[in-house]
Amino acid sequence: MTRQALWPSLLEPSRQGDDGLCTVSAKGVRVRLADGRELLCGTSGLWNANLGYGNEAIAEAVATSLRDASYLSVFRYENAYARRAAQALVDVCGPHYRRVLFSTSGGAANDLVMKLARLHHALRGDSGRKVVVGLRGSYHGLTFGSFGLTGEDLGQQLYGVDQRLVRHVSGDDPAELAELLERQGGRVAAVVVEPVRGSGAVPLSPHYLGRLLGLRERYGFLLVADEVATGFGRTGPFFASQEWPSQPDVLVTSKGLTNGTMAAAAVVVSAELARSFDRPGVVLAHGETQAGTPSTCAAILATLEEMDRLDAVGRSRALSRKLDGKLAELVREHPRVLGTEGRGCFRALKLAGRDGGPLPGSEVAAVVAAVRDAGAVTHPGPGGVQLIPALTYTDAELTELLDRVRAGLDAHTAAVAGTGVAG
Ligand SMILES: Cc1ncc(COP(=O)(O)O)c(C=O)c1O
User: Fold this and answer.
1) Which residues of 57-94 are buried (b: 16+ CB within 10 A; e: fewer)?
2) Which residues of the chain have pLDDT under 70?
3) Is 227 in the pocket of ligand 1 (CB under 6 A)?
4) If you measure from the C-alpha of residue 231 to the centroid of ligand 1, how many angstroms do you get, rounded to a whole number?
5) Is the CB of 72 under 6 A from ligand 1?
6) How far apart are CA 333 and CA 231, in angstroms?
7) Is the CB–ligand 1 distance for residue 140 below 6 Å?
8) How confident is the model at residue 145, as a pLDDT?
9) Mutation pick for ligand 1 pocket among 111, 139, 262 (CB with most ligand atoms within 8 Å)
10) Ligand 1 touching residue 105 (CB < 6 A)
């Protein structure tokens, strides 16, 4: 078999080299494939192109910055683009926050966060506090540190990922976290949570959040909101944690930060936490050559301006209300749809298999493929598919997405009935 030079991520060999899975261009909310088809994008890229593809203002800002300063670093230097982007991020995050560290991916940013938390406690004379707690089923990236923190089993054992200083607890029942803290509270440096767990689009319940915030008061760990996916209007507010009764110590943002145009992430640190590092000689051992470059920061600044100009948060809320109605209709009318999960423009459909029970994981890819054949890109999720439309979707595009999902489900149902394959 002839292989393409490209070794794509998380795609098993039998599905590699397929022109039906190779995109060649993207504009608005549509992507074109190498086989010539054009598909409606129901995933906002990898949940990052919140404003749709091909935003002219962002493209222009990046092009201008590349001509002005093709490269400047934030490694033992500062640069003016990074200063401006950091301040703009602090402004949008709110007065609770004070400082920003730049990174190049959600995974690398979570690595940084773990180092930041441990250094913070060491500076307070508590260097024994090194344990970082994540939630079972969570996703924080696949770099070695973030892979360890990721609570979904993606082969951490096989790859020798070091999880000796990581613990995972339930994201549904806070009692498990409370018990862990009772036993090891003095060793816990940070608890990292996704406000809406990406895998399954499951929001933290108000009860869980209340307990979590109370436990932070009691045990003194840093609370980190991994908003890599939930930021930039994805779940309603600009950042999901802005609706929490009390703010996290650290907020991590990445996907929507440049509307998917650059390898960018930012770790936004509260004023109070930032103060603990503000003394002579303190240096955090984290730096990335491509973090905080002029083009990245120009993209961040332009994305923030476009979020504002396009009223992306307002549009996200309006689209979310329409999604509520359309998804309720789908649950009522379609026998394969058992229910929905999620918030804002971050939704999951829970589907039924042939026996009426939850769709088995082994069948999810076939459903995603059937919806793709019906003309729309959706994301695989536990027992179903996830819908993560651009916040700028029109009513007609939303109707089209739901129609294509229905058509895909019908085709999959017919194919399963035809072959007698369980699913
Ligand atoms: C909540 C969360 N954290 C971290 C990551 C990892 O980001 P990246 O793929 O940029 O490393 C993701 C990616 O999906 C995510 O959803």
Assistant:
1) ebeebbeebeeebeebbbeeeebebbeebbebbbebbe
2) 1, 419-423
3) no
4) 12
5) no
6) 32
7) yes
8) 98
9) 139
10) yes
Could you read off the pLDDT of 157-205 as tens digits, one per residue? 999 999 999 999 999 999 999 999 999 999 999 999 999 999 889 999 9
Mutate to test the pocket of ligand 1, among 102, 103, 255, 267 (most ligand atoms within 8 A of CB): 255
Residue of minimum CA distance from atom 4 in ligand 1: 140
Q: How far is the CA of 140 from the centre of ligand 1 (A)?
A: 5
List, for residues 15-65, the tens digit of each pLDDT value. 999 999 999 999 999 999 999 999 999 999 999 999 999 999 999 999 999
Domains of the chain (ranges plus CATH)? Answer: 56-309 (3.40.640.10), 311-419 (3.90.1150.10)
How far apart (Å, rounded) are the C-alpha atoms in residues 13 and 145?
A: 27
DSSP β-bridge partners for residue 33: 23
Q: Which residue has the tokens 């033992």?
A: 76
Nearest CA to ligand 1 atom 16: 229
Residue with tokens 């109370």: 214
Q: Which two tokens stand for residue 59?
A: 């493209």
Its pTM stands at 0.97
Q: How far apart (Å, rounded) are the C-alpha atoms in residues 239 and 228?
A: 10
Which pLDDT belongs to residue 356? 87
Beta bridge partners of 99: 269
Check: CB of residue 275 under 8 Å from CB of residue 233.
no
Ligand 1, residue 255: give the atom nearest the CA.
10
Q: Phi-psi region for residue 220, left (φ > 0), alpha (ψ -120 to 50) or beta?
A: left
